Amino acid sequence: MLKEAQDHANRPDNTAFTQQRLPAWQPMLSAGIVIPGFVLIGLAFIGIGVALFVTSKSIQELEIDYTGFEKDSACYKCSDQKPVTCLCQLNFTVESLLKGPVFFYYGLSNYFQNYRRYTVSKDDDQLYGNLDNFKSPSSTCSPYEYNRTNVPIVPCGSIANSKFNDTFKLYQKVNATMKPVPFDGKGIAWWTDYNIKYRNPNIIPLRNAFNGTTQPISWPSPAYELDTGNPSNNGFINQDFLVWMRTAALPDFRKLYRRITEGDYAQGLPAGSYMLDIEYNYNVLSFDGRKKVVFSNVSWMGGKNDFLGIAYLVVGSMCIFMSIVMLIVYAKFKFPEED
Description:
Blueprint: H1 2-10, H2 31-58, E1 61-65, E2 86-94, E3 98-99, E4 102-109, H3 116-119, H4 124-127, H5 132-135, H6 158-161, E5 167-174, E6 177-181, H7 191-197, H8 239-245, E7 253-260, E8 268-269, E9 272-280, E10 290-296, H9 306-333, H10 335-338
Antiparallel strand pairs: 1-10, 2-9, 3-8, 4-7, 4-10, 5-6, 5-9
Protein backbone atom coordinates (compact mmCIF):
# COMPACT_ATOMS: atom_id res chain seq x y z
CA MET A 1 0.00 0.00 0.00
CA LEU A 2 2.79 2.38 0.90
CA LYS A 3 4.57 1.71 -2.40
CA GLU A 4 1.37 2.33 -4.38
CA ALA A 5 0.84 5.63 -2.54
CA GLN A 6 4.38 6.77 -3.37
CA ASP A 7 3.93 5.82 -7.03
CA HIS A 8 0.68 7.75 -7.14
CA ALA A 9 2.30 10.81 -5.55
CA ASN A 10 5.13 10.82 -8.15
CA ARG A 11 2.75 10.37 -11.06
CA PRO A 12 2.49 13.47 -13.33
CA ASP A 13 -0.84 15.24 -13.51
CA ASN A 14 -3.30 13.89 -16.01
CA THR A 15 -3.12 16.91 -18.33
CA ALA A 16 -2.49 17.17 -22.04
CA PHE A 17 0.83 18.90 -21.39
CA THR A 18 2.32 16.53 -18.81
CA GLN A 19 1.01 13.45 -20.59
CA GLN A 20 2.27 14.70 -23.98
CA ARG A 21 -1.14 14.73 -25.62
CA LEU A 22 -0.88 18.25 -27.06
CA PRO A 23 -1.59 18.54 -30.78
CA ALA A 24 1.61 18.60 -32.79
CA TRP A 25 2.54 19.34 -36.37
CA GLN A 26 5.53 17.90 -38.16
CA PRO A 27 6.25 18.87 -41.77
CA MET A 28 6.50 16.06 -44.28
CA LEU A 29 9.60 17.08 -46.24
CA SER A 30 8.86 15.84 -49.72
CA ALA A 31 10.75 16.70 -52.89
CA GLY A 32 7.89 18.97 -53.92
CA ILE A 33 8.57 21.13 -50.86
CA VAL A 34 12.34 20.91 -50.41
CA ILE A 35 13.42 21.56 -54.00
CA PRO A 36 11.26 24.70 -54.54
CA GLY A 37 12.31 25.84 -51.05
CA PHE A 38 15.99 25.63 -51.97
CA VAL A 39 15.30 27.49 -55.21
CA LEU A 40 13.46 30.31 -53.44
CA ILE A 41 16.12 30.62 -50.75
CA GLY A 42 18.86 30.61 -53.39
CA LEU A 43 17.15 33.30 -55.46
CA ALA A 44 16.60 35.44 -52.36
CA PHE A 45 20.25 35.14 -51.32
CA ILE A 46 21.46 35.91 -54.84
CA GLY A 47 19.21 38.97 -55.01
CA ILE A 48 20.47 40.28 -51.67
CA GLY A 49 24.06 39.45 -52.64
CA VAL A 50 23.82 41.37 -55.91
CA ALA A 51 22.35 44.39 -54.10
CA LEU A 52 25.08 44.31 -51.44
CA PHE A 53 27.90 43.81 -53.94
CA VAL A 54 26.72 46.56 -56.31
CA THR A 55 26.24 48.95 -53.38
CA SER A 56 29.68 48.13 -52.01
CA LYS A 57 31.27 48.81 -55.38
CA SER A 58 29.54 52.19 -55.53
CA ILE A 59 31.24 53.34 -52.32
CA GLN A 60 34.20 55.60 -53.01
CA GLU A 61 37.37 54.98 -51.06
CA LEU A 62 40.85 56.46 -51.12
CA GLU A 63 43.52 54.63 -49.11
CA ILE A 64 47.08 55.91 -48.57
CA ASP A 65 49.87 54.13 -46.70
CA TYR A 66 52.12 56.44 -44.68
CA THR A 67 54.16 53.95 -42.62
CA GLY A 68 57.40 55.30 -44.09
CA PHE A 69 58.98 51.90 -44.59
CA GLU A 70 59.97 52.57 -48.21
CA LYS A 71 62.78 55.03 -48.80
CA ASP A 72 60.73 56.98 -51.35
CA SER A 73 57.87 57.41 -48.87
CA ALA A 74 57.03 60.93 -47.71
CA CYS A 75 57.22 59.75 -44.09
CA TYR A 76 60.41 57.70 -44.38
CA LYS A 77 62.31 60.23 -42.27
CA CYS A 78 59.79 59.69 -39.45
CA SER A 79 59.98 55.89 -39.31
CA ASP A 80 62.95 55.96 -36.94
CA GLN A 81 62.51 53.97 -33.74
CA LYS A 82 63.24 57.01 -31.58
CA PRO A 83 60.15 58.36 -29.78
CA VAL A 84 60.51 61.85 -31.21
CA THR A 85 57.65 63.76 -32.81
CA CYS A 86 58.18 64.13 -36.54
CA LEU A 87 56.22 66.01 -39.19
CA CYS A 88 55.64 64.73 -42.70
CA GLN A 89 53.34 65.64 -45.56
CA LEU A 90 51.36 63.45 -47.93
CA ASN A 91 50.38 64.93 -51.28
CA PHE A 92 47.61 63.19 -53.15
CA THR A 93 44.98 63.84 -55.79
CA VAL A 94 41.24 63.22 -55.75
CA GLU A 95 40.30 62.38 -59.34
CA SER A 96 36.56 63.04 -59.00
CA LEU A 97 34.17 64.33 -56.36
CA LEU A 98 34.35 62.13 -53.25
CA LYS A 99 30.71 62.45 -52.26
CA GLY A 100 29.91 63.48 -48.72
CA PRO A 101 29.66 62.92 -45.94
CA VAL A 102 33.29 61.81 -46.07
CA PHE A 103 34.70 59.72 -43.23
CA PHE A 104 38.39 59.94 -42.43
CA TYR A 105 39.92 56.83 -40.81
CA TYR A 106 43.34 55.78 -39.63
CA GLY A 107 44.22 52.14 -40.19
CA LEU A 108 46.69 49.76 -38.56
CA SER A 109 47.90 46.38 -39.79
CA ASN A 110 49.43 43.44 -37.92
CA TYR A 111 48.13 44.92 -34.68
CA PHE A 112 46.47 42.30 -32.47
CA GLN A 113 44.05 44.19 -30.27
CA ASN A 114 42.14 40.92 -29.88
CA TYR A 115 44.90 39.37 -27.74
CA ARG A 116 43.16 38.35 -24.52
CA ARG A 117 45.63 39.85 -22.04
CA TYR A 118 45.47 43.09 -24.00
CA THR A 119 41.66 43.30 -24.16
CA VAL A 120 41.27 42.85 -20.38
CA SER A 121 44.11 45.22 -19.50
CA LYS A 122 41.96 48.07 -18.17
CA ASP A 123 40.06 49.02 -15.03
CA ASP A 124 36.35 49.43 -15.80
CA ASP A 125 35.62 50.96 -12.39
CA GLN A 126 38.39 53.49 -12.87
CA LEU A 127 37.08 54.36 -16.33
CA TYR A 128 33.63 54.86 -14.84
CA GLY A 129 35.04 57.62 -12.64
CA ASN A 130 35.45 55.69 -9.37
CA LEU A 131 38.07 57.65 -7.41
CA ASP A 132 38.96 54.66 -5.23
CA ASN A 133 40.34 52.96 -8.33
CA PHE A 134 42.40 56.04 -9.13
CA LYS A 135 44.55 55.32 -6.09
CA SER A 136 44.36 51.51 -6.32
CA PRO A 137 44.09 50.40 -9.96
CA SER A 138 42.90 46.89 -10.73
CA SER A 139 45.51 44.15 -11.11
CA THR A 140 44.14 43.51 -14.62
CA CYS A 141 46.06 46.64 -15.68
CA SER A 142 49.42 44.97 -14.99
CA PRO A 143 52.13 45.92 -15.85
CA TYR A 144 50.67 49.41 -16.32
CA GLU A 145 49.17 49.87 -12.82
CA TYR A 146 51.96 52.04 -11.36
CA ASN A 147 54.99 53.83 -12.71
CA ARG A 148 58.54 53.23 -11.50
CA THR A 149 58.03 55.41 -8.44
CA ASN A 150 54.86 53.52 -7.49
CA VAL A 151 52.50 56.33 -8.51
CA PRO A 152 49.17 54.98 -9.85
CA ILE A 153 48.60 55.35 -13.57
CA VAL A 154 45.27 56.78 -14.71
CA PRO A 155 43.93 55.49 -17.04
CA CYS A 156 45.78 52.25 -16.39
CA GLY A 157 46.27 49.22 -18.64
CA SER A 158 47.77 48.26 -21.97
CA ILE A 159 44.91 49.55 -24.11
CA ALA A 160 45.10 53.08 -22.76
CA ASN A 161 48.90 53.06 -22.74
CA SER A 162 49.04 52.16 -26.44
CA LYS A 163 46.55 54.82 -27.55
CA PHE A 164 47.05 55.97 -31.13
CA ASN A 165 48.42 59.52 -31.10
CA ASP A 166 49.22 60.54 -34.66
CA THR A 167 47.41 63.75 -35.62
CA PHE A 168 46.32 65.01 -39.02
CA LYS A 169 45.45 68.26 -40.77
CA LEU A 170 44.07 68.33 -44.31
CA TYR A 171 44.49 71.11 -46.87
CA GLN A 172 43.25 71.59 -50.41
CA LYS A 173 45.53 73.27 -52.91
CA VAL A 174 43.54 76.12 -54.48
CA ASN A 175 45.27 78.65 -56.72
CA ALA A 176 48.67 78.13 -55.12
CA THR A 177 47.20 78.54 -51.63
CA MET A 178 46.48 75.94 -48.97
CA LYS A 179 42.81 75.93 -47.95
CA PRO A 180 42.14 74.09 -44.65
CA VAL A 181 39.56 71.32 -44.80
CA PRO A 182 37.57 71.39 -41.53
CA PHE A 183 37.39 68.17 -39.51
CA ASP A 184 34.41 67.26 -37.33
CA GLY A 185 35.37 65.14 -34.32
CA LYS A 186 32.02 65.19 -32.52
CA GLY A 187 30.13 61.96 -32.00
CA ILE A 188 32.71 59.65 -33.58
CA ALA A 189 32.58 57.24 -30.61
CA TRP A 190 29.79 54.78 -29.84
CA TRP A 191 26.84 56.36 -28.03
CA THR A 192 26.91 53.66 -25.34
CA ASP A 193 30.60 54.29 -24.65
CA TYR A 194 30.15 58.04 -24.33
CA ASN A 195 26.91 58.05 -22.32
CA ILE A 196 26.99 54.82 -20.31
CA LYS A 197 30.25 52.90 -20.16
CA TYR A 198 32.74 55.71 -19.46
CA ARG A 199 32.43 58.56 -16.98
CA ASN A 200 34.57 61.35 -15.62
CA PRO A 201 34.68 61.92 -11.84
CA ASN A 202 32.20 64.54 -10.62
CA ILE A 203 34.97 66.92 -9.61
CA ILE A 204 35.50 70.42 -10.98
CA PRO A 205 38.04 71.23 -12.24
CA LEU A 206 38.67 67.78 -13.66
CA ARG A 207 42.42 67.97 -13.12
CA ASN A 208 41.88 67.85 -9.35
CA ALA A 209 40.52 64.32 -9.65
CA PHE A 210 43.89 63.21 -11.00
CA ASN A 211 45.92 64.52 -8.06
CA GLY A 212 48.39 61.91 -6.88
CA THR A 213 48.28 60.01 -10.17
CA THR A 214 50.26 60.09 -13.40
CA GLN A 215 49.44 59.65 -17.08
CA PRO A 216 50.21 56.43 -18.99
CA ILE A 217 53.89 55.95 -19.77
CA SER A 218 53.58 56.61 -23.51
CA TRP A 219 51.27 59.63 -23.18
CA PRO A 220 52.75 63.12 -23.58
CA SER A 221 49.97 64.71 -21.49
CA PRO A 222 47.47 63.62 -18.82
CA ALA A 223 43.90 62.57 -19.56
CA TYR A 224 42.44 65.92 -18.51
CA GLU A 225 44.47 67.66 -21.25
CA LEU A 226 43.69 65.43 -24.22
CA ASP A 227 41.83 68.27 -25.95
CA THR A 228 43.02 71.71 -24.91
CA GLY A 229 40.66 73.39 -27.36
CA ASN A 230 37.47 71.82 -25.98
CA PRO A 231 37.27 71.38 -22.18
CA SER A 232 34.23 69.09 -22.47
CA ASN A 233 36.21 66.64 -24.61
CA ASN A 234 38.70 65.60 -21.95
CA GLY A 235 39.21 62.76 -19.54
CA PHE A 236 37.61 59.39 -20.14
CA ILE A 237 34.95 60.81 -22.47
CA ASN A 238 37.43 62.15 -25.00
CA GLN A 239 36.17 61.00 -28.40
CA ASP A 240 39.53 59.76 -29.70
CA PHE A 241 40.16 57.91 -26.45
CA LEU A 242 36.76 56.19 -26.62
CA VAL A 243 37.32 55.14 -30.23
CA TRP A 244 40.67 53.58 -29.32
CA MET A 245 39.35 51.80 -26.22
CA ARG A 246 36.84 49.84 -28.30
CA THR A 247 39.23 47.12 -29.41
CA ALA A 248 39.20 45.61 -32.89
CA ALA A 249 38.46 41.94 -33.57
CA LEU A 250 40.98 41.51 -36.40
CA PRO A 251 44.69 42.40 -36.71
CA ASP A 252 44.04 44.68 -39.70
CA PHE A 253 41.57 47.38 -38.78
CA ARG A 254 40.61 50.99 -39.20
CA LYS A 255 39.15 53.44 -36.69
CA LEU A 256 37.21 56.63 -37.32
CA TYR A 257 39.29 59.76 -36.80
CA ARG A 258 37.11 62.56 -38.14
CA ARG A 259 34.20 63.39 -40.43
CA ILE A 260 34.31 65.95 -43.23
CA THR A 261 30.84 67.49 -43.20
CA GLU A 262 31.22 71.24 -42.84
CA GLY A 263 31.60 74.39 -44.92
CA ASP A 264 32.54 74.07 -48.57
CA TYR A 265 33.08 70.33 -48.07
CA ALA A 266 29.62 69.39 -46.84
CA GLN A 267 28.93 67.77 -50.21
CA GLY A 268 32.25 65.95 -50.23
CA LEU A 269 35.86 66.45 -51.32
CA PRO A 270 35.99 68.12 -54.75
CA ALA A 271 38.40 66.84 -57.37
CA GLY A 272 41.81 68.40 -56.97
CA SER A 273 45.13 68.28 -55.14
CA TYR A 274 45.39 67.89 -51.39
CA MET A 275 48.05 67.84 -48.72
CA LEU A 276 47.80 65.94 -45.43
CA ASP A 277 49.98 67.22 -42.60
CA ILE A 278 50.88 64.36 -40.27
CA GLU A 279 52.34 64.60 -36.80
CA TYR A 280 54.05 61.21 -36.79
CA ASN A 281 54.19 59.87 -33.23
CA TYR A 282 53.02 56.27 -33.37
CA ASN A 283 55.71 53.75 -34.25
CA VAL A 284 54.57 50.47 -35.82
CA LEU A 285 57.73 49.15 -37.46
CA SER A 286 58.85 47.54 -34.20
CA PHE A 287 56.17 44.87 -34.73
CA ASP A 288 56.18 44.94 -38.56
CA GLY A 289 52.98 46.91 -38.65
CA ARG A 290 51.67 49.36 -41.24
CA LYS A 291 49.79 52.64 -40.98
CA LYS A 292 47.38 54.16 -43.45
CA VAL A 293 44.72 56.82 -43.81
CA VAL A 294 41.42 56.18 -45.55
CA PHE A 295 38.92 58.62 -47.02
CA SER A 296 35.57 56.98 -47.61
CA ASN A 297 31.86 57.58 -47.85
CA VAL A 298 29.14 55.17 -46.78
CA SER A 299 25.84 53.75 -48.01
CA TRP A 300 22.73 52.20 -46.49
CA MET A 301 24.77 49.04 -45.82
CA GLY A 302 27.60 50.91 -44.09
CA GLY A 303 31.19 51.06 -45.34
CA LYS A 304 32.79 49.23 -48.22
CA ASN A 305 32.50 45.47 -47.72
CA ASP A 306 32.71 43.26 -50.82
CA PHE A 307 32.90 40.09 -48.75
CA LEU A 308 29.33 40.32 -47.47
CA GLY A 309 27.85 40.47 -50.97
CA ILE A 310 30.13 37.68 -52.20
CA ALA A 311 29.12 35.49 -49.23
CA TYR A 312 25.43 35.91 -50.06
CA LEU A 313 26.09 35.12 -53.73
CA VAL A 314 28.05 31.98 -52.87
CA VAL A 315 25.39 30.66 -50.48
CA GLY A 316 22.60 31.47 -52.94
CA SER A 317 24.45 29.74 -55.78
CA MET A 318 25.04 26.67 -53.63
CA CYS A 319 21.31 26.48 -52.83
CA ILE A 320 20.42 26.66 -56.54
CA PHE A 321 23.05 24.04 -57.35
CA MET A 322 21.80 21.69 -54.64
CA SER A 323 18.22 22.10 -55.82
CA ILE A 324 19.29 21.05 -59.32
CA VAL A 325 21.17 18.04 -57.92
CA MET A 326 18.15 16.99 -55.82
CA LEU A 327 15.84 17.41 -58.83
CA ILE A 328 18.05 15.16 -60.93
CA VAL A 329 18.24 12.53 -58.18
CA TYR A 330 14.50 12.69 -57.60
CA ALA A 331 13.69 12.42 -61.30
CA LYS A 332 15.99 9.44 -61.70
CA PHE A 333 15.02 7.40 -58.67
CA LYS A 334 11.52 8.50 -57.64
CA PHE A 335 9.43 9.18 -60.75
CA PRO A 336 9.42 5.53 -61.87
CA GLU A 337 8.08 4.41 -58.48
CA GLU A 338 5.17 6.88 -58.71
CA ASP A 339 4.31 5.56 -62.19
